[in-house]
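Thread: "does anyone have the structure for this chain?"

Original post by V.I.:
We have the sequence but no experimental structure in hand. Need at least a predicted one for the grant figures.
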Amino acid sequence: MSLNGIICLALIPARGGSKGVHRKNMRFVGGVPLIKYTIDAALGTRFIDQTYVSSDDNEILNFSAKSGASTIFRTQECSNDLSNASSVVDHFFNSLDVELMKQDPYVFYLQPTSPLRTAMHLNECCQTVIDLKVKTLLSVVKSNQSPFKSFIKNSKDELQALFDESMTNKRRQDLPDTYYPNGAIYLFRSSDFYNKGKAFPSNGSFPYLMLQKDSIDIDTEEDLELVNRLMEKEDGSI
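Reply from O.Q.:
Generated one for you, tokens below.
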């Protein structure tokens, strides 16, 4: 099933190496490898036509294929510690069939380190695109602390207001709400990516608001322990 009559793909980037947690994409969370939650979320989204896993690691690629995803072997050039998400997306688009790319497909970019982002969230995003005619979308969380009250240190190690100093003295309720991307969901079309100079669209994108508890991004062993505890409280289900 397409999205607004346009083919919709899911891209899950999952390299074998990791600095914070050794081979984290294949670490067991709630009894299964971490990446399986994102594969299942994409496969369970009725608007996504095909789910791809991009990786430089054969174990990840084999597991992903057995789990129902299509696989794309990613070169080392796009898989080292200096590689960014944009290079992964560009490699993905260049790996697709030319005729498919002519359709300017929608793409969900779904990091596998967000296991509490589910098919429900993705289906809600798709319905938002349909109902509100949204062009690009990303998931966000409401900030608990206002950046308008933030400071940096200048060259003399003195505090300097990040924004106008007068804003640091305002009540929090008098300042605008702010949001930050939680990294769980990016949705855009291939033309949006290339029109931004091979970058993810952000300004002008629709904010899909997620709960803090659903926004955990596994980057440390402590994050893994936290997610496992959350799943145990819910009898192993998300």
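V.I.: this helps a lot. The CA atoms of residues 52 and 140 lie 23 Å apart.
O.Q.: and Residues 119-132 form the longest helix (14 residues).
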